[in-house]
Structure formats: structure tokens, C-alpha cells
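>> received
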Amino acid sequence: MPFKMSKTLFFISLAIFLASTLLHLIGGLGYEIFGYVKPITIIQLSGFASFALFLGFFRKAASRLDKVMLNALIVIAFMLVMGTLFEMLWSFGYWFSTYELEITLKGLPQSSEILDEVVYIPSSLNNRIVWNEETSLNTSAKLCTLSFMMSVYLLVFLRDVKHKI
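>> returned
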């Protein structure tokens, strides 16, 4: 893809990412754009597109790295994949187990609306972490999936650079 076009696509995806982040922050849990899609979904998609396009700007610079440095970056990328995979699995596991408990303990009917409204409330034992307020498990799962896919893409990007040098 020509550099000018990828630069334009990057700025478009970044603008969409920032606008949807603002809508997510001010819109609340139930807000949907045009009554159809939650801002967190657009954050997830445009965030990945922005990241992938941003990495593309560094392809030539990355190809000038020596093999030792590139191998070290690949190991770091594998560690990122491992860490973000755990967070993604934990997030989905927590989300669905909480959903099942809500149904079992409260006798609620099964519906996607109930699933979307489930929130994570950190225990008082976690008061030293920065992320110390309740958040939608839908948002948490989507952000964890975004970070996992970004780390996988980084790994693929670095492997591709390594094989071309």
C-alpha cells in the first residue's frame, strides 16, 4: 500500500478511535451509536486498525535491526501474547461465570441485555491497582481481546520482518 494512502487510513482510523472513545466515556453502558453498535466495538476495530497501520510505518526501520535485537523483540512479543491471552481468557471466564451466577442466584431470564449489563467490581484487596472501579465486562472483554490481537499482530509483523532480512 502506498505510504500516503496508509498514512491517510491511519489518521482516519485514529480519528474514529478517538471519537468512539469519547462517545464511550460520555455515553454510558447502554449507549449505542444510531441504536445499533456500542462505541466499545468501534474502539476495538479502529484501535486494531490504527495499531496495524502504525506498525507499517516502522517496517523499513525494523528491517535494519540486527538479528539478535529482532529475536529479542520476538521473545518480548511472545510474552505479550502470553500475558494478553491470559487476560482475555480471564475476562471472558469472569464475565460468563458472573452471568451464570446472576441467572442461578437471582433467577433472571437469559438474555443478551443481562449479559451486557454485568459489571466487574474489584474487591477491596485490589485497592492498590490503578483499575479500581467497576467496569462493564463487555468493555473489559473487548479491550482484552484488542490487546491480545495487537500482540499477535506485533508478533506476526516481527516474524515477517525477520524472514525478509
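>> The mean pLDDT is 84.
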